[in-house]
Structure formats: C-alpha cells, structure tokens
Amino acid sequence: MNCQNCRTMTEEGCSLCETCEMRLAGTLLRLARDVTPLHDSLDATLHPGGHSPVRIQTATPPTPIRLDVLDLIDMLDATARELWRCLDGIDALDWRKDPRMEDLEATLIACAGHPKLATFADAGLYMHIINNLARKVDLALDPPEQRREIGTCELCEIMLTAGPNDQWVTCPVCGREQRAQTVKLRRLKTLCWDDGRRGSAAEIAKAFTDAGIALKRNTVNVWRKRGKLDVTPDGIAYSSVYRLVISGEPVDELPCEKTKPSDELDK
Ligand SMILES: [Zn+2]
Ligand SMILES: [Zn+2]
Fold it and tell me: Ligand 1 centre and the CA of 262: distance in Å?
C-alpha cells in the first residue's frame, strides 16, 4: 500500500507511513498545547499574536471577542471529536452515540496517541484537514512576519519573542513579565559592551534596529569604509558602532552607495 499523504510504500494495512504518522501525532499534540493560548487570544483587548499574549489598551475595541479565533476553536473542536469517533469506529456524524465528554485538549491528546492513527481508512484526509487547521492556529497565535526574537529573559536566559507593538513580554519558561524595550536594549548592551563581539554590517544593523535604534547596513558599511570602525577579519566590533551612534554620528543622510558584487561577500 502507499501512504495516503506522501505516497511512499508502506506496510500492508497502513494508511500512513511511519514518518507521516509521527507528523500527524506531533501536529495533534501541538494543537493540544495551543488550546489554552487560543482561548486566551479570544479577548480582543489582547494584542493579537502570542503564545504569551500581551494586554493592550485599544482606543475603541471593535468587538469584545475575536470572532475569527472563536470560529477556529469551534472548527478544531468539531474536527478533533469527529476524528476520535472515526478512530474508534463510531460513525463520525452520529455524535449521540458517543458518551465521551472530554475537553478539547484531552481529545486531541487521545487522538495523537490512538493505536489506529496510521491504520484507519481516512487517515490521509484527516492529516490534510488537521494540517490546515494547525496552519490557521499558528497564524492566529503568531502572525509570522510580526514576531521576532528580541533578547533573553533576565532570569532564565531563554530567548524571548515579541511582535512590534508588544510593550511587555512574558517569559514562557519562568513566567516573568518584562518590558520588551528593556529586553532589546539589554541584548544590545551585552553585544556592545564586549569589544570581542563582532559581526557583519547586516548583523549589526539588525541588532540596533531590533533594539529600537534605526540603523541601515549601508550606513555601517559607509562608516567602515571611512575608517571609523574597529574592523578585524572576524568582523566589525559592535562597540565601535555603538560609540559612533551615541556620539551622534548622522545615520540618515548618508549617500546610498550602489552595492557592488564584492559587498555581498563583506563580513
Ligand atoms: Zn507518508
Ligand atoms: Zn524566564
């Protein structure tokens, strides 16, 4: 038989190959973990985006709850219960015969660990549906282009992520709330206080911009060419850029140089 998802040959009686079975189980477990953050994101006064949501004051909240998230939870709930009945051979649409009242999270976990996950007839179809739902959940929780790493937690050193409008971040490990700007500046400071920390013009520009100081890669390159920076074969010292920035070196009105092919290879 062929795997219904990836079409590779698989054992007789299996609808999914081992790899796809693992993936499906993994996705189901990930969705189970997302149930609580999803419920938290229902509140429209929370910043949309966050496995660690941040409360904001909106001038006029459009609705008290996010209807897109409500729909998503409903869809996930219906799908998970239907899948569980399917796995147990109960007619998927005949919900009255299913006495189970487990919550959504428990249902998803039960599906992920079900012995028939790779052998029931519609495994490929459900894998497709579950993957689509997981993508939507990810979008609801973490708009991809908006969240980026901003620095480490002051207590447990875990890397924190935040969206551009997040004022506060909550560490997912130790639960500590910290101002996003403080986290970013602390990261920049550790880079700039150590003369040994070096990077490419692009890396340095990104670190400064992430910390709230707009700095273009081109600007760093111009400074380097003018001999204003501490440059070694390992790269440019963050500290030398930092000194220029705080001494008020103009960062905006520099001529925009054409990028020569050799610049792409510059450290
Ligand atoms: Zn497969
Ligand atoms: Zn922490």
Answer: 44
Cα of 118 vs centre of ligand 1, distance in Å, is 10
177 C-alpha vs ligand 2 centroid, how far in Å?
9
Which candidate, 186, 178, 257, places its Cα nearest to that of 225?
257
The whole-angstrom separation of Cα 126 and Cα 27 is: 11
Counting ligands in written order, the one closest to the CA of 178 is 2
Find the 216 Cα to ligand 2 centroid distance in Å: 31
The string of DSSP codes covering 24-70 is HHHHHHHHHHHHHHHHHTTBTTBPS--SS--B---SS-S-SB-HHHH
Please write the tens of the pLDDT for every residue from 204-254: 998 888 777 788 999 999 999 999 999 999 999 999 998 888 777 765 544
Task: Please name which ligand lies nearest the alpha carbon of 14.
Answer: 1
What is the mean pLDDT of the segment spanning 141-145? 66
List the one residue out of 210, 206, 262, 232 whose CA is nearest residue 220.
Answer: 206
Residue 222 confidence (pLDDT): 92
| Distance in Å, CA 159 to ligand 2 centroid | 8
pLDDT number for residue 144: 58
Secondary structure tally for the chain: helices H, strands E: 8, 7
Distance 26 CA to ligand 1 centre (A): 14
Neighbours of ion ligand 2 (CB under 5 A): 153, 155-156, 171, 173-174, 176
- What is d(CA 257, CA 86) in angstroms, rounded to the nearest whole number? 63
**pTM, whole model, 2 decimals?**
0.52
> Residue 61 pLDDT more than 70?
no
User: Distance between CA atoms of 70 and 76, rounded to whole angstroms?
Assistant: 10
How many angstroms separate the CA atoms of 145 and 17, rounded? 33
